[in-house]
Amino acid sequence: MPFQLGISNYLCTMQLHKFLIVIIVGVLGSYHSSAQTDNTNDKKEPKKKILVGNKMWNLDVNAAVDFPHADMAKRFGTSYRVGFGIKYKTSSNWIVGAKFEFITGNTFKEDSLLYNMKKDLGIINIAGDVINVGMFQRGYMTGIQVGKIFPFLQANANSGPMMLASLGFMQYKINFFDRDNSFPQLRDEYKKGYDRLTNGIYFEDFIGYNFHSKNKLVNIYAGFDFVWGFTKVRREYTFDLERKESANRNDILTGFRLGWVVPIYKKKSEDTYY
Prior knowledge:
- By secondary structure, the chain is an alpha+beta fold.
- About 20% of the residues lie in helices and about 50% in strands.
- It has helices spanning about 1-45, 70-75; strands spanning about 50, 55-70, 80-90, 95-105, 120, 120-125, 130, 135-150, 160-175, 200-210, 220-235, 250-265, 270-274.
- It has an eight-stranded antiparallel beta barrel. A three-stranded antiparallel sheet has the order 5-6-7, with no helix packed on it. A two-stranded antiparallel ribbon has the order 1-13.
């Protein structure tokens, strides 16, 4: 009887050992399979490549064509801007800078301009002769800029879609060209009654693409401008209107800009991090 009980206990113990071995083998097999799956996923998902651009100063010259809207369209036609700027670009492609631009144009829409000096064929000078007077839009814009080059559609780490916001001061007026100096009304202080000197603050948005070649020889940007000027005529009296212009103006411009950049690099090459 004791012998039979010993055999029985031995058999039970062997069965328990077999059961535990099966469980351990199953757990280890499951873990090994899971590890293989994780390794396979790691191989299938490559590490993300992050491009880091160069820190640099950018000196640029640019030109733009502007189409007027709102109050600006009541006075002028298409105008042009030529200017220069300086910007600093960080390695994460943030941009800060400043700019100065000249405004020029020769298209006018106000019928009242010099109406008190006009006849059917032109403007009468001091000698009674009918001649034409050259009239040109002249002005400038200056301001500070902040923006960013975004990390998609990139030719390289320093290139990509770019947005710039500007805040600054704008001023423009009408310049009269009297070659023979034959119009006393357009001399010295008198011409201030006709030139519509206007100025105020402006906001500007630029959306475009910035490209810096790796060989550093071709560096350009191009895109679209939107300018909103909050301005006012500053003269005390406008002679041809026979009143003072005191209303606030909304001078809006939309257009296209192209710029050439001279970069001054702080690092020689772009870095790649993983």
